[in-house]
């Protein structure tokens, strides 16, 4: 659920040679770019869609039909984004039933009749939950994930399942973001030869390309924030425990969470309110200090940057020159709007990296095997999964192997003293001695940093060329982080991340919304075959 190249090793750069272009993207260069403005619901937010349904100008069934047609246009044909793994065969019927409810005078709330796309590591009947792996192609859980049940109760229509980095980028230290043996390579809609990042690749791409109203991703370290940023959308990683993990294929329960991905902060807030809440089957939610019925969208009214104390993590500007330039513009805009922006630092920055690695490798096996056994999956142990991949290597491992699986299989379990001390130390260094210390040192409301750099070229031979991130501390601490579009460079989106202490989602959303309204930095994708930098002489990005 994160860019694994940052987790397990130092950043795997492209070395001295340029990342190789995606050959399929080159083949599509001559195809005419699809129209964004020609789509009836282009860039429409949840409030827009609700207003149109209230006026009788459209219906949930019509919305589902329109998004399904959009998926055929962009995902199956045209640029072939490969963002969608499966569609919900009941979506039209569910939408029609919700339309009937509306006609009878019942509207459940702001999500009534709104199509939502799920990352394909989240259980939702009657669809399979594959985690992008051929080994789980026939796994059809009998029950919805807790968050999916909450979405349905809120009136949302589950549109389908999105492609992802196989096993949420936790199979190999040389994985390729957005690739899975089920769904193939997801493409960035801004430049088809560029990475969509991962692991919530398909959700981010589908939201960016207007193939769904909103979507749900999952994150362990970066898997919501990174793809949201490089695909020009909003992504929120909540505090671990705000959203139940019950019914989600796990990596590491101490860091795993699901969260909203949307084209606006307001839509992310609406979605978060629907999925947050206590679940008896997920003990992490027992510590949830936020009411399940908290109206995050209501908190956005009157949002302002005036008087906010914001700490810029200046050391994170080294991620890339483009990110640094965009962040300085963002800081100037916030200051002009009345915010106090000061340089800040996380005193323990990256000191948790080795411990995080140990935590994730140690938690993966017991968590995954419990998930597989409970659902009577075709494979029910990590060893069986490793053997399956070896047997089907030509299909499953044509690009990269499974060294992380093998390392996780060798771990001795959660009673290991090495694991226990690593988990304690990582959370302390990233949380109380990291983010909390940085906030308290200058009485700050939030910390900000560039989310990551520009999307790198898809290179099946070299794997990911991940430039680094500004969100790692929040992931390890289990704290919330929000990325909001902050501009473009050479046609590629960049995101700004807002980080706060545990349970500070409402504050992050208010500040993020105020920044979003001030800058209006999101622009829809143009489906270019490649970015200008893709053909620049001597480029090694």
Characterization of the model:
With 541 residues, this protein is an alpha/beta fold. It is 35% helix and 12% strand. It has an eleven-stranded mixed beta sheet, with helices on both faces. Strands 4-5 form a two-stranded antiparallel ribbon. It starts with a helix and ends in a 22-residue tail after the last helix.
Secondary structure class reads: alpha/beta
Compute the gyration radius: what is it? 21 Å
| CATH hierarchy class name | Alpha Beta
Secondary structure tally, helices: 17
CATH fold-level assignment: Amidase signature (AS) enzymes
Number of domains: 1
> Can you name the CATH architecture?
Alpha-Beta Complex
Distance between the first and last residues' Cα: 23 Å
What percent of residues adopt helix (DSSP H or I)? 25-40%
Largest sheet: 11 strands, mixed
- Silhouette: globular
Strand order of the largest sheet: 1-3-2-6-8-7-12-13-11-9-10
User: Order of SSEs, N→C?
Assistant: HHHHEHEHEEEHEHEEHEHEHHHHHEHEEH
Essential attributes:
17 helices, 541 residues, eleven-stranded mixed beta sheet, disordered N terminus, Amidase signature (AS) enzymes, globular, alpha/beta, two-stranded antiparallel ribbon
Chart the SSEs and their pairings.
Blueprint: H1 4-8, H2 23-27, H3 46-54, H4 60-76, E1 84-87, H5 91-103, E2 115-119, H6 146-153, E3 157-162, E4 179-180, E5 184-185, H7 201-208, E6 214-219, H8 225-230, E7 234-237, E8 257-262, H9 265-275, E9 309-313, H10 321-336, E10 340-344, H11 353-374, H12 382-391, H13 393-396, H14 403-409, H15 417-441, E11 446-450, H16 472-477, E12 481-489, E13 492-499, H17 505-519
Parallel strand pairs: 2-3, 2-6, 9-10, 9-11
Antiparallel strand pairs: 1-3, 4-5, 6-8, 7-8, 7-12, 11-13, 12-13
Helix pairs in contact: 4-5, 9-17, 11-14, 11-15
């Amino acid at each position: 659920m994160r860019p694994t190249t940052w987790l397990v090793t130092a950043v795997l750069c492209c070395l001295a040679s340029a990342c190789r272009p995606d050959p399929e993207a080159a083949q599509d260069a001559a195809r005419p770019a699809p129209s964004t403005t020609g789509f009836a619901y282009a860039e429409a937010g949840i409030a827009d869609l609700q207003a149109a349904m209230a006026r009788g100008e459209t219906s949930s069934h019509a919305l589902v039909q329109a998004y399904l047609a959009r998926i055929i246009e962009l995902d199956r044909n045209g640029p072939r984004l490969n963002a969608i793994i499966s569609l919900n065969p009941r979506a039209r019927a569910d939408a029609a039933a919700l339309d009937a409810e509306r006609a009878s005078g019942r509207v459940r709330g702001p999500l009534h009749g709104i199509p939502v796309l799920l990352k394909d590591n989240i259980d939702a009947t009657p669809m399979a939950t594959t985690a992008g792996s051929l080994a789980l192609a026939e796994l059809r859980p009998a029950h919805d994930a807790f968050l999916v049940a909450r979405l349905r109760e809120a009136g949302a229509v589950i549109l389908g399942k999105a492609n992802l980095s196989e096993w949420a980028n936790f199979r190999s230290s040389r994985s390729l973001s957005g690739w899975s043996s089920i769904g193939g390579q997801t493409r960035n809609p801004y430049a088809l030869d560029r990475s969509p990042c991962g692991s919530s690749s398909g959700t981010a791409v589908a939201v960016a390309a207007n193939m769904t109203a909103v979507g749900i991703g999952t994150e362990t370290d970066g898997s919501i924030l990174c793809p949201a940023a490089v695909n020009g959308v909003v992504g929120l990683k909540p505090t671990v425990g705000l959203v139940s993990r019950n019914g989600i294929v796990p990596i590491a329960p101490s860091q795993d969470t699901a969260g909203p991905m949307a084209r606006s902060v307001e839509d992310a807030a609406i979605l978060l309110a629907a999925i947050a809440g206590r679940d008896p089957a997920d003990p992490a939610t027992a510590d949830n200090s936020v009411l399940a019925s908290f109206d995050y969208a209501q908190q956005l009214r009157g949002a302002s940057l005036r008087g906010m104390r914001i700490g810029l993590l200046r050391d994170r500007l080294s991620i890339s020159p483009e990110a640094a330039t965009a962040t300085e513009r963002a800081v100037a805009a916030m200051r002009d709007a009345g915010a106090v922006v000061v340089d800040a630092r996380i005193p323990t920055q990256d000191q948790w990296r080795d411990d995080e690695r140990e935590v994730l490798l140690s938690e993966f096996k017991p968590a995954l095997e419990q998930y597989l056994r409970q659902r009577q999956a075709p494979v029910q142990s990590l060893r069986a999964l490793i053997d399956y991949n070896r047997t089907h290597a030509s299909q499953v491992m044509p690009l990269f192997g499974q060294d992380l699986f093998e390392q996780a299989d060798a771990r001795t379990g959660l009673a290991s003293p090495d694991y226990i001390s690593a988990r304690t130390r990582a959370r302390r260094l990233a949380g109380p001695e990291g983010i909390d210390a940085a906030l308290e040192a200058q009485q700050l409301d939030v910390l900000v940093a560039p989310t990551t750099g520009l999307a790198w070229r898809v290179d099946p031979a070299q794997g990911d060329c991940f430039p680094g991130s500004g969100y790692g501390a929040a992931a390890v601490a289990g704290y919330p982080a929000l990325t909001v579009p902050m501009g473009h460079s050479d046609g590629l989106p960049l995101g700004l991340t807002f980080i706060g202490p545990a349970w500070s989602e409402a504050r992050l959303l208010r500040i993020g919304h105020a920044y979003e309204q001030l800058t209006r930095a999101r622009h829809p994708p143009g489906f270019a075959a490649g970015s200008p930098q893709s053909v620049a002489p001597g480029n090694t990005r």
